Amino acid sequence: MTGFQFWPALLGFPLLLLIYGLVRRRRGRGVVFTGPFSGTTSSGASAGFAEAVVWAGVLCLFVALARPRYGYQRLPYATEGLDIVITLDVSTSMLARDFSPNRLSAAKQAALRFIRGRPNDRIGLTVYAAEPLILCPPTFDHSTLSRFVERASIGNLQDGTAIGAGLAAAARGLGGSATTRRVIVLLSDGMETAGMVDPITVAEAVHTLHGDSIAVYTVAIGTEDDPYGVDRETLARIAQLNNGRLFDAYSARDLAGVYESIDSLEASTLPPEGLFIYIDRYLGWLWAGVILVLFGSFLRWRVLKIIGGGE
3 pairs with which residues across the strands? Predict the structure, then answer.
C-alpha cells in the first residue's frame, strides 16, 4: 500500500506553475525562467532545457514535502484487539424447527455474520452437548474458523446439555490470551442435564481466575413455552457474574440482533481497515529535487555566461 502522509502539499506545484505563468505573461514573452522564483531575458533551447530541469527539481521537492510512504499490513500483536470464543450448544434440542430451518442452522448463520464483521479480532469456537469440545482456538484465520462453524453438527458428542462444561472449555481456550479484554458468547436452548459441576460454580470460578478481563454474554434460544425449557435464570446469573448480560433470542432475527448488540458493547479496539506499518520514501525525492534544481541552475548560469561572452 502506497500513499502520501500530507498529500495537499502536491497542490503547491500546480499553484506555483500558475503564479509563474501569470507573472511571465505580465512581463512579456521575452522573460525566460532562471530558477523557480526569478526570471531574466534569454532565448534558445539550452535555456529552455535548463528551465525544465529546474521545474522537474521543484516537482520532486513538492513530492518530498507530501511525504510519500509505503505501507504493509500487519497482524495485531498479542496484546492488541479482542479475543472472542463462540460457545455453541449442539444438543439434539437445537434441531427444533421453531427457527428457520432449525435452531442450530440459524445460530451458525448468525455466528458467521458476526465473524465477518470482526476481521481484526481473534475468534474461536467451542461446542458442547453432554461434554465440550474446542473446535478452534481464537485465531485470525477466519476462513478456517468459518469452515469449523459450518461443519458444527449434532451427533458427534454424547447428547445432553452441560452448560458449565461448555463455559469451562471456552474459558480454558482463552487461557493463553494476552489481551486485556476477552469475550465468551455462550448459546444454549436447554437446562443443565449432563454436567459434573453446577454452571454457577463454574461461572464463579471463571470470575475468580480472570476477574474483569473476561466478559460472558449468554444467549437463551427458545420461547417461553419451549418444551425443552431453556434455563434463563442460570444463564442470566452466569452473565451477571462475569461482566456480561443475558440476551433472549426467540427467532433468527433476534439472534442476528444479539450479535449486533455484542458488536456494540464490545467494539473492536483496532481500526476496521487493519493495521499498517509505513516506511517513508521521501528522502530520494528530496535529494533528486535538490540535485535537479542545482543542476538546472548551473546549466542556466552556463547559458547566461555564453550569451554574455564570459569565459
Answer: 69
